[in-house]
Amino acid sequence: MLSDDLFKRASRLFPGGVNSPVRFYEPYPTYFSRASGSRIFDVEGKEYLDFCMGFGVNFAGYSNTTIAEEIMYLLDNTIPEGVPTENEIELGEIIQKAVPSIEKMRFTNSGTEATMHAIRLARAFTGRKLILKMNAGFHGAHDYVLVSAGSGALNFGTPSSPGIPEEVAKTVLVGDFNNEESIRELFKLHGKDIAAVITEPVLGNLGVIGPEKGFLKFLREITEEYGALLIFDEVITGFRFRYGAYQDIIGVKPDLTTMGKIIGGGMPVGLFGGRADIMNRISPEGNVYQSGTFSANPFTVASGLATLNFLKDKDYEYTISLATWVEEKLKSFSDLGVQVNRVYNMFTIFFNEERVWNYETALKSDRKKFMKFFNFSKKHGIYFSPGQFEASFVGMAHTPEEVEMAVFKMVYTLEFDMNEDRNEREQVSINSN
Q1: Is residue 165 part of a domain?
Q2: What's the CATH code of the domain at 257?
Q3: Does the pTM exceed 0.90?
Q4: Coiled-coil ranges per the record (predicted)?
Q5: Which residues pair with 338 in a beta bridge?
Q6: Out of 3, 69, 143, 235, which residue is the most buried by the measure of CB atoms under 10 Å away?
Q7: Residues 307 and 322 reside in one and the same domain
Q8: Last residue of a domain, one of 261, 277, 312
Q9: Euclidean distance between CA atoms 77 and 75, whole angstroms
């Protein structure tokens, strides 16, 4: 079965032919049938080295034997959903030990659910209604985070999607990541009404953009000054750079943290947790409601346990060194507008004439060039997310040999496939001979 045939069938079922917009690209997406290690295979049998890795979910690698054995055990020894299990306690204890700021937690089914409940809890705990998020910071698909900046830097947010009431958007303030002044001005105007600041400590859906020196510490200080909570969305960064959270690398302790992706080992998962006095407001101990039939379901918990046990003794520096190598090899193409943003083992390739460090500079990136790079790379057996503003990931299953070959192919793409002036000169030379 060919991908174009499958897309025709899918288009009769799903809006746009896909179940998430980032999966679509022109003329139709490639359909995949299986994966192993760091490799994915399409329905026509072509093999790709994957740097998307399930949008960062599969850090331990596809078809990981340790994880697969736990799933197979559950298939033969069914545990019902909706009842407490010892495994959920064990997974929680591992996370609590690895991330000291998470004194208590609740599992959810996705990162979207995790941030939704964390925001509700922050509002209930502080008795305030406003949330401050970063422009283009991504925290899932619920109404309170699908809000972008208005026409002015100090405006309330505007809905990022039809169907979100303006009344909801007016409870969300939007500041600029890495811009202390924009955050300070919002607090001067609305500080007594701000319940929490929520941010990814490393932006992962504006491309990879790390915090400028002192920015996250500034957020901690200003939230404490005004009595607001600080929420770190570590759905992407949790257990990615170290066995624990990014917050412990930088030494900034939030009040609440959300996690997902890696802690589920490939199964749907989310988590929010933090200070015990805040988390104790959750029902049934408190009166803030949160629930879910599939929260801490046996398959997710077993997969998460297997994943975190697998990663416990692994060398994270191994993945960081491979990602560093990608950055070093590609940054020599800055004359072609290539900018590589890397934070530890995640990176984004931009086509931009200036350093990408915030919302404004990211939007100057040439998305058409990126799609050319994506398509040429895919032709050569290298798979990235088709979205310019998504992150790429190096995981435990990538090998030095694989990454070396991938870099060679990326360099070829930049030097030959995309260098139109050079191609034209070579064509003229060939024709003249």
Answers
A1: yes
A2: 3.40.640.10
A3: yes
A4: none
A5: 351
A6: 235
A7: no
A8: 312
A9: 6
Q: Do residues 49 and 383 lie in contact, with contact meaning Cβ atoms separated by under 8 Å?
A: yes
Q: For the purposes of burial, counting CB atoms within 10 Å of the CB of 141, is it exposed (0-12), middle (13-18) or buried (19 or more)? A: middle
Structural domain boundaries, residue 231: 65-312
Q: How far apart are the first and last CA of the chain?
A: 44
pLDDT by residue (tens digit) across 105-127? 999 999 999 999 999 999 999 99
Q: How far apart are CA 220 and CA 255, in angstroms?
A: 9
Strand arrangement of the beta sheet that strand 338-343 belongs to: 338-343, 346-351, 392-393
Q: What is the pLDDT of residues 147-168, one digit of tens each?
A: 885 434 345 677 888 898 889 9
The structural domain count of the chain equals: 2
Alpha-carbon distance 370 to 386, whole Å?
Answer: 9
- Length of the chain measured in residues: 433
- Residue where one domain finishes, among candidates 312, 328, 358: 312
Among the listed residues 330, 342, 387, the one whose alpha carbon sits nearest the alpha carbon of residue 202: 342
Distance CA 136, CA 433 (A): 52
The H or E element spanning position 369 is: helix 367-379
Segment among 34-38, 70-74, 267-271 with least mean pLDDT: 70-74
The tens digit of pLDDT for each residue in 196-254 reads 999 999 999 999 999 999 999 999 999 999 999 999 999 999 999 999 999 999 999 99
